[in-house]
Amino acid sequence: MEKLMISGGRPLQGTVTISGAKNSAIALIPAAILADSEVVLDNLPLLSDVAVYAEILEALGGQVSWDGQQMNINPSDIKSIPMPNGPVKKLRASYYMMGAMLGRFNEAVIGLPGGCNFEPRPIDQHIKGFEALGATVTNEHGAIHLHAKELRGAKIYLDVSSVGATINIMLAAAKAKGSTTIENAAKEPEIIDVATLLNSMGAVIKGAGTETIRIEGVSSLHGCRHSIIPDRIQAGTYMIAAAATRGNVLVDNVIPKHLEALNAKLIEMGVGIQEHDESIRVIGKDRYEHVDVKALVYPGFPTDLQSPMTSLLTQADGVSVLSDFIYSSRFKHVPELIRMGAKIRVEGRSAIVEGSALNAAKVKAADLRAGAALVIAGLTVSEGVTEITGVEFIDRGYDHLVTNLRQLGADVWRETE
Ligand SMILES: CC(=O)N[C@H]1[C@@H](OP(=O)(O)OP(=O)(O)OC[C@H]2O[C@@H](n3ccc(=O)[nH]c3=O)[C@H](O)[C@@H]2O)O[C@H](CO)[C@@H](O)[C@@H]1O
Ligand SMILES: C=C(OP(=O)(O)O)C(=O)O
After folding, report:
1. What is the ipTM of this complex?
2. Mean pLDDT of 384-405
3. Given this structure, which CATH class describes domain 2-19+230-416?
4. What sequence ranges are listed for the domain Enolpyruvate transferase (predicted)?
């Protein structure tokens, strides 16, 4: 088991370049299953979730090569093989195998997904969408069985604007007969990225990024080349780390528009923010104001940055309240931050954070962003070494983390227990 060691207290300084978005990558790879020839994806992040997805496609007969950035996927020989267990259990986004395999073969057997379990994460809206398109869906011993004689377009109103359900319905509907409308669709940038890839493959999808998406089914999809958008959550994490350590960091290769909610909060706290076309400079200050944060669907403040933001708010004067309206109990970072001296209490779906100095401790990352929160906390501590276990969660979302932090001047290393 590996652990991450941090001897903190150094302001982060320099430039960090952000890689492609995890939540795009792990939807774009299964989308390639729908093509009849090679799909090339550029700017992929070097993450365990991406490696697992390559493994899944290869297990089905796909030809995949990946150099850590560019992935070539030839899906021609992919077969309709049931996957009730195995690698699909290792990540959350394996649910996209349902939409992609259903779209290509009119059938699929996919085990219920794994990934970060900070609270129950139902997939009822995905299933409602597949059923509306004409599929029969059953849950047999923890695996979802999907079958359709043919998929037909339908009008689907999502009860919650779910990222996963929106993308899964686009995947299943891209080759369905007739037109599909998704109402109350999620608007996250990753959805636009998936629609862009599918349209480059020959699909006809309009409205991605708005609450109404229209998909005209086509009979076949072809290969293409696509470059993935930058990871706004990874970028946001480095921005928060720069502020927390009172550093000065240029976060490069970002789409500033995707980070507006975070920028606004950082500015409200008193952090210096300079926006450029494809980069954002974060200039830390000695004192920060307390702020309240509400995690909401895009373009609101992202739930995936709620935990990292909790660590930053321990460094602000006064009392801040972080409420998560996407996941009501995403607070597994809180007990660990308390071990590091934070003054936080959880009430309902909110964490109430009183500014306080942190100390080094042995802590455990219980999920990906809880891990990011602990890294940020460790970077602010000026005496002692913070030891973080559960590194496998952090590796799901941050490529080259140690290298990047060291380039920014942090004293960070990995050790094997
Ligand atoms: C792989 C991926 O892209 N993961 C992201 C995706 O997760 P994911 O796609 O799983 O998240 P959703 O957008 O689906 O979830 C949003 C909310 O809807 C609820 N819900 C969702 C689906 C459903 O069928 N029924 C239902 O009730 C969830 O419990 C949650 O409260 O969006 C989340 C919200 O931005 C992010 O935290 C995750 O990083
Ligand atoms: C929750 C996350 O990912 P996933 O949905 O893949 O578990 C995340 O990226 O913070």
Report:
1. 0.99
2. 96
3. alpha beta
4. 7-404
